[in-house]
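ok so for the tutorial part 2 we go from a plain amino acid sequence to predicted structure tokens. step 1 is just haveing the sequence, like this:
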Amino acid sequence: MEPQPTEISLEIKPTARFAVIDVKQRLANQFGDILARYRKALYCSFHTTAGYLEETQSNEHVEPLLGAFRNIFPPEADYQHDQLELRKELSDQERQCEPKNADAHLIFISAGMKNCVTYDNQPGQPVYFIDLDGVNGGETRSRRTTILGFNAEEAMQNITLRVPVSKHPVDSVNLKDARLGLCEQLNELIKHLDITHGRIDIELPPGEQNAGLTVNEYETLLMKHDLAEVLRNPFKYMALQGRHALAQPKLIPGKTLDYAKYDLVHLFNELMDKMGVSETVIERLLSVFIRLPASHFLSMKRHISLFVSSDSDPLNGKKNGDGRGKIVLGKYQSPILVQWDRAAGETRNLNVTISKFK
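step 2 — the prediction. this is what the tokens look like for a chain of 358 residues:
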């Protein structure tokens, strides 16, 4: 008889703002070879600036890949999310300690990082928890991730959800918004299906173009201004930091882009590496890049996963206590639908699969 799924909560304290941490090794150090009995493992982050890549990568690939996006979204650029005086939802006390981390949010979204991933449990294969804002204002942040070992999964139900979107070509929708009722509907299905450990997969069908999915903080200035600006002009914030560098293109680092898998960034990298390119040529090239659609640049995913558990409490790592499975999200996490062109009929379809782990 195969073992039941095992869930473990792991606390992480990064030592740098950008940190790549092998959580599988940390898990082994604290709990021994607890995953050895399982063929698969789910890894879930409860943070909007720290998570996982869709596929396992070696560290020598992770840092250059994320480094490309860190160059494009530098800290302390002109992000409205970081202008705390504009954040009406914050109290005066909260403004004193709120991190200025719009760059980390935009890197997470644009690089296609995920809050929840499932990997084959391969011996010796590291699993990296990537923190984009692990130390902020000199303070080390406490992070939490959950690992669930399991051997099999069964798709219990497939449904299609219709999501109303605005007539604006560039927009985002908070799928956790109670007025939509989507999370409530999914939690009712989880209860009906009697799932204690599982996963919800939400995917854009092939017919839904010019859109993506992410799990992040649905803060108005971040979603409606900063991300919208990126969708219109992916290089907006990099240009603010690097105007002086355009006069000396040889000084612009290119090697950090070597592992980026996106045709736009590859082309941009090759051009930046050329010797003796004039400022005028660089500016002309940038203007061409900026006119390309965001889909050629962003690695925003068309699929997200949500963790279902009867055990997880992302705030303190303790069990819920009610024994019922439900969608588990961190305090600031929301599933978000983003579009960069209008949708026919001002609605978009989402394919949803609810699976049970065994």
